[in-house]
């Protein structure tokens, strides 16, 4: 199917784990192995075998030919590089948590974004990493230990049940929200392809007997509740919401509902949300508001050669702004 073809065409993205290795050292190491560093071609499919380049948008991302297999590579096995899709590296960058910050990763497992956030915070400050699923949280513990993260506190439980007024969270300013979604943007995962087949065989209903519309409504209600809970943390000032879904219901429509119901928050402007990434939100899905759409980031697999992904960032309005209301 087209999906399988797209999956094959996605280049090999390798995030350098800056806890263990600088980007420069990673580059040297690959060069010593016989890889050639080139300027990123406009079309990444033109990268040849044994060539690699530094991503244009993310300083810690190297890109290799799609057939490069690093699963047995010493740098991967030792946690020096992390095999993570480029788009899924957007949220931690957009979060912009500085050294020493207190942050929450609300739906964290298996923890690739947590470990990325930890690296960007230079292993300082504190990150509470919540997940409802204990098996997945165990995986997060393993992955983040292997990656050398020392500023993460894993918490087993629902983020929705945490008390935002709890004194331990009183300095939490940054929240990363990557809640469960339909996964409709994921094209390189075979289990997703099987899901699609299931839907077809059951008159469009999934294994829970839900129609696609019902499923998306349940997911977006949950996603909205996660964002609104994050907004209750007294010092929350930058909240990144992402999905690996291509459905506006889980993306622009969720943002629209949040902006309507939470007047203390607004969208962070494009200049702090991957400004050089060209593909932005879909204006017609957010009341035709081009300014809002411009604050949002989308990726389209066939054109961007990443999974389908969505990123938004809410910031608390300044006191002066709020007083105007
Ligand atoms: N951010 C993760 C990463 O990059 O590795 C992927 C997160 S995955 C899309 C969503 C996660 O949310 C799942 O692991 C799921 O168990 C968790 N989850 C679902 N409901 C939750 C809740 N109420 N509180 C905390 N975690 C929840």
Task: State the main characteristics.
single chain, 325 residues, alpha/beta, 8-stranded mixed β-sheet, 5-stranded mixed β-sheet, 12 helices, globular, binds S-adenosylmethionine
Task: Summarize the structure in short.
This protein has 325 residues and is an alpha/beta fold.
Topology:
Elements: H1 2-9, E1 12-16, H2 23-32, E2 36-37, E3 51-54, E4 61-64, H3 74-77, E5 81-82, H4 90-95, E6 102-105, H5 112-120, E7 126-131, H6 134-146, E8 152-156, E9 172-177, H7 190-201, H8 212-230, E10 238-243, H9 252-261, E11 265-267, H10 290-295, E12 297-299, H11 301-304, E13 309-316, H12 319-324
Parallel strand pairs: 2-3, 6-7, 6-9, 7-8, 9-10
Antiparallel strand pairs: 1-4, 1-5, 3-4, 10-13, 11-13, 12-13
Bound molecules: S-adenosylmethionine.
S-adenosylmethionine binds next to helix 5 and strand 7.
Poorly predicted ranges:
189-202
Structural classification? alpha/beta
- Identify the bound ligands: S-adenosylmethionine
| Radius of gyration from the alpha-carbon trace, in angstroms | 20 Å
Protein architecture, described:
With 325 residues, this protein is of the alpha/beta class. The chain is built from 12 helices and 13 strands. The protein has helices spanning 2-9, 23-32, 74-77, 90-95, 112-120, 134-146, 190-201, 212-230, 252-261, 290-295, 301-304, 319-324, and strands spanning 12-16, 36-37, 51-54, 61-64, 81-82, 102-105, 126-131, 152-156, 172-177, 238-243, 265-267, 297-299, 309-316. Strands 6, 7, 8, 9, 10, 11, 12 and 13 form an 8-stranded mixed β-sheet that branches. A 5-stranded mixed β-sheet has the order 2-3-4-1-5. Strand 6, helix 5 (112-120) and strand 7 form a beta-alpha-beta unit. The longest helix is centred in the last third of the chain and has 19 residues, at 212-230. It is globular, with a radius of gyration of 20 Å. Residues 189-202 have low confidence and may be disordered. The structure holds S-adenosylmethionine. Residues 88, 106-113, 130-133, 136, 158-160, 178-180 line the site of S-adenosylmethionine. S-adenosylmethionine binds at residues 88, 106-113, 130-133, 136, 158-160, 178-180.
């Amino acid at each position: 199917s087209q999906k399988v073809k797209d999956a094959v065409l996605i280049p090999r993205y390798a995030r350098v784990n800056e806890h263990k290795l600088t980007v420069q050292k990673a580059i040297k190491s690959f060069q010593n192995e016989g890889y050639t560093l080139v300027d990123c071609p406009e079309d990444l499919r033109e990268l040849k075998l044994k060539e690699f380049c530094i991503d244009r948008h993310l300083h810690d991302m190297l890109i290799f030919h799609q057939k490069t297999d690093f699963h047995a590579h010493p740098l991967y096995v030792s946690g020096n590089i992390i095999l993570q899709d480029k788009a899924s590296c957007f949220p931690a960058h957009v979060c912009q948590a500085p050294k020493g910050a207190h942050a929450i990763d609300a739906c964290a497992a298996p923890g690739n974004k947590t470990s990325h956030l930890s690296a960007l915070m230079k292993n300082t400050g504190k990150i509470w990493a919540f997940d409802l699923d204990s098996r997945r949280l165990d995986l997060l513990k393993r992955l983040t230990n292997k990656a050398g993260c020392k500023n993460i506190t894993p918490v087993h439980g629902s983020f929705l049940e945490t008390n935002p007024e709890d004194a331990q969270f009183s300095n939490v300013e940054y929240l990363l929200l990557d809640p469960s979604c339909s996964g409709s943007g994921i094209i390189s995962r075979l289990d997703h392809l099987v899901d699609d087949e299931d839907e077809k065989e059951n008159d469009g209903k999934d294994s829970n007997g839900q129609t696609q519309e019902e499923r998306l409504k349940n997911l977006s209600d949950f996603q909205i509740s996660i964002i609104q809970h994050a907004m209750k943390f007294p010092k929350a000032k930058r909240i990144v919401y992402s999905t690996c879904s291509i459905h506006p219901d889980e993306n622009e429509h969720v943002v629209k509902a949040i902006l309507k119901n939470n007047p203390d928050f607004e969208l962070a402007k494009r200049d702090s949300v991957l400004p050089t990434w060209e593909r932005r939100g879909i204006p017609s899905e957010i009341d035709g508001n081009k300014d809002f759409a411009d604050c949002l980031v989308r990726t389209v697999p066939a054109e961007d050669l990443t999974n389908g992904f969505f990123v938004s960032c809410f910031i608390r309005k300044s006191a002066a702004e709020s007083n105007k209301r």
